[in-house]
Amino acid sequence: MCVTIYGIRIFTIESSRMKLLTVFIFQFSIGFLSFSQGLGDVFSVRIAGNILNEDILGSMEFATKVVGTKVIMVLGHTRCGGIVGACNHVEMGNLTTLLNKIQPAIFNEKTTTENRDGSNENFVNNVTEIHVHLTIDRVRRESPIIAEMEEKGELIIVGGIYDVETGEVAIFE
Ligand SMILES: [Zn+2]
User: Fold this and answer.
1) What residue segments make up the domains of the chain, in order of their start?
2) Ligand 1 geometric centre to CA of 1 (Å)
3) Distance between Cα 145 and ligand 1 center (Å)
4) pLDDT per position as a tens digit, 128-145
C-alpha cells in the first residue's frame, strides 16, 4: 500500500484492519498545497512554526487511533517566516510564545558559528530541519498512543521539508 504526496510515494504497512489509507499532515503554514487524494484521505493541521501542543496531539490521536490514519507527516518548508522570525528572536504579542517553541531547534543547531540569524539561509534551513526532527521526537514522547501504534507497525511517522521554490519535498530517511 502506498500513498503519493507531491509525487512522492510513501509506503505503509499492510494491515488487514486497514479500511482506508489516510495521511495526517502536520506542517508549517503553506498556503498552496494540493493533493490528489480523495475526500477524507488527508488530515491537515497547519500552524505557524510547526509547534506542537495538546490540541494538535489530540487531533493526531483522533486521526490515527479513531479514523485509521496510517501516516503522520511532519512537513517543514524552506523560507519559513516563522523559523526566520524565531532565528531573529522576534517578539510580538502572542507570537512570542509561539516562536519560543522553535528555540530548542536553534539551540541544537551547532554547525553555524557566525551569523546565527534569519538572514543566513543555511542556518535557517538547518534550524528548519532540526525543528522537524524535534517535533517528531515530541510526538513520540508526548503521545503514548501514537508511540505504541508506531511500535506495533500500525502507522509510520515521516518528516520532510517542502522546498517552496522547486515544489519538491525531501523526505528524511
Ligand atoms: Zn512557514
Assistant:
1) 2-171
2) 30
3) 28
4) 999 999 999 999 999 999
How many whole angstroms separate alpha carbon 110 and alpha carbon 114?
Answer: 11
- Mean pLDDT of the chain, nearest integer: 78
CATH number of 2-171: 3.40.1050.10
User: pLDDT of 9-54, one tens digit each?
Assistant: 444 433 333 333 455 666 554 443 444 444 455 677 777 777 788 8
> With contact defined as beta carbons under 8 Å apart, do 59 and 65 qualify?
no
- Distances, alpha carbon 164 to alpha carbons 29, 55, 98, in Å: 11, 27, 22
The answer to whether the CB of 106 falls within 8 A of the CB of 131 is no
Q: How far is the CA of 49 from the centre of ligand 1 (A)?
A: 6
